[in-house]
Amino acid sequence: MTDDMLQTAANLPAASARRYAWPRLTHRLVPVLRRHFLVWRKLAIPSLLANVADPLITLVAFGYGLGQLLNSIDGVPYIVFLAAGSICMSTMMAASFESLYSAFSRMHIQKTWESLLNAPLLLDDVMAAEWIWAAIKGCISGLAIILVAWALGVTREPTLLAVLPVVLLTGLAFAALGLCVNALAQGYDFFSYYFTLVLTPMSFLSGVFFPVTQLPDWLQAFSAVLPLTAAVALARPLVLGEWPHGVLHHVAILLAYAIGGFYLAVVLTRRRFAN
Amino acid sequence: MQMADADAVLRVEGLVKRFGSHQAVDGLSFSVRRGECFGLLGPNGAGKSTTLKLSLGLMEPAAGAITLLGEPIPSRGREARVDVGVVPQNDPLDPDFTVAENLLVFGRYFGQPDSLTRSRIDPLLEFAQLQSKRNARIQELSGGMKRRLTIARALINDPQVLFLDEPTTGLDPQARHLIWERLKRLLAQGKTIVLTTHFMDEAERLCDRLLIVDHGRAIAQASPVELIAREIEPHVIEVHGPGREQWAAQAPSLGCDRVETVGETTFAYCQHPETALAALNQRTDLRVLHRPANLEDVFLKLTGRELRD
To answer: How many separate domains does chain B show?
Structure first.
């Protein structure tokens, strides 16, 4: 027993160091990413339709429908105002869906992760691939709305191109948050709480449908630290052909959620897999 | 023992793993020699699968030292797994891919070029008797086919060691025999096999050496033949019929060393069965089966007869 406890003590620091080690991104994530892409390619058409249809309906219905009733918001037609919010929200939803339902299915239901971990891959590699893949899925959705807005003539500003890196950052932030929730989930039910209690309220607090300035002061302060607020604050001026204010500040917020969130997700998932 | 250690593919010393207050693995030590088939045998929940996962570096042990293919585990588990194949339970194949795509994509995880993987796909499909299923979806495969594909997939990197977690659980006898034959073929090629099982005939047919585990502890370690010779009387007399309880009471005086009654059957274990058999010959009210002791008798003697679920 004493020997056993001595050995336990000897194993603990190394184990704890491995638990909290900073995850390293290596080329090993590439074959995992290729796997996700190959599966997606087989189901790409229905997947793309689903990614585009929902925010497209929102944009058209709210934009034109509500737009008829409203005068301009902040000096622009409502549909133009809404476009930036739609791009960011769509990115958020797609990245979240992929890092929750799809990642959970690969981790827990289909046991894809188990196969990956039996190969010479680490949990870090598997997580990194999930993170980047969910961000890419977010980008595909965001890009689809950008194209829809361009095609409808909502906006044709060249600064629209600069929305792409914003979409990528937004995708990385929400993919990381989604993976944190995934690490704690016991079943799919858990995710509906995250959607109803976190993501849906966030979309009303982040300036997607109406300016943040409409919120009471205390809510504005809360809104200012939300990732979706930062995303919309960057995307909206770019959609309108202007350069946003406080770029560094908003980028820093998105990066903090992306990198901090991913680190937390990796540590939580390591804990999950240790037991 | 020292000879064995020098040639050990896997060495485990003082391994301990706890899940909360449950002691899953409690001080296990064993080593696996190159080219042998080593079996971890034990009832459900004995700690077999946990030991396998720990040996592969997929979990952190609470205590103990593991070396796999010369690499310390878990710190260099990834490096060790380059030369290892794993067949987990429940065949976690990719349901969205065809049979051949499952092999191709899995080869990429080992960092090997697609050309090398492609050159291995046909021989592996032949090995697994899945040539006609090359482009089939996973849902179209039977349980036996899925298991064979999982084994083929574990061989895509041409590993030195193959770990199998209950390789024939849930399969029909035909499928089971085919898998045994294929595993023997791999042993003949010089591969090392580590498997868990709770099937005695599987352990007896395949394994050079066995470690019987219960409650996370080693309770016996030897070849199947040695275990039977060492742990149990060589003759078993099974007696059925209405008079068996009365017979059970007199059996010790007829030279039987141990007598057990389970449900409708009385088991008598003997070094010298002649006297008991002669006495049973006189009885018309009893049905008698005299057979040599097997690994299942050893297993039940060592781990007890109570259900584990």
So the answer is: 2
Domain boundaries, position B258: 233-292
- Domain assignment present for residue A4? The answer is no
Q: Domain check: are B223 and B245 in the same one?
A: no
* Residue A9 is assigned to a structural domain of this protein: no
Task: Name which of A35, A118, A275 is nearest B86 (Cβ-Cβ).
Answer: A118
Residue A260, C-beta contacts closer than 8 angstroms, at least 6 positions apart: A176
Contacts of B101 in chain A (CB under 8 A): 38
pLDDT tens-digit series, residues A22-74: 998 899 999 999 999 999 999 888 878 877 787 678 788 877 888 888 878 88
pLDDT digits (tens, 9 = 90+) for B130-185: 999 999 999 999 999 999 999 999 999 999 999 999 999 989 999 999 999 999 99
Residue B256 counted as domain residue: yes
ipTM (interface pTM): 0.89
Q: Are residues B238 and B218 in the same domain?
A: no
A21 touches chain B (CB under 8 A): no
In a domain, B128, yes or no: yes
Closest residue on chain A to B150 (Cα): A115
**Looking at residue B42, which CATH number applies to its domain?**
3.40.50.300
Domain housing A258:
27-274
Q: What pLDDT, in 10s, does the model give residues B44-64?
A: 888 999 999 999 999 999 999
CB < 8 Å to A7, chain B: 14, 16, 63-64
Residues B225 and B237 placed together within one structural domain of the fold: no
| Cβ pair B108:A3 closer than 8 A | no
Q: Per-residue pLDDT tens for A131-185?
A: 999 999 999 999 989 988 898 888 899 999 999 999 999 999 999 999 999 999 9
Cβ-Cβ contacts under 8 Å between A and B: the total is 88
* 3-class state of residue B51 by DSSP: helix
Residue A19 placed within a domain? no
Nearest Cβ partner of B78 from A3, A4, A122? A122
Q: Please indicate, yes or no, whether residues B133 and B249 belong to a single structural domain of this protein.
A: no
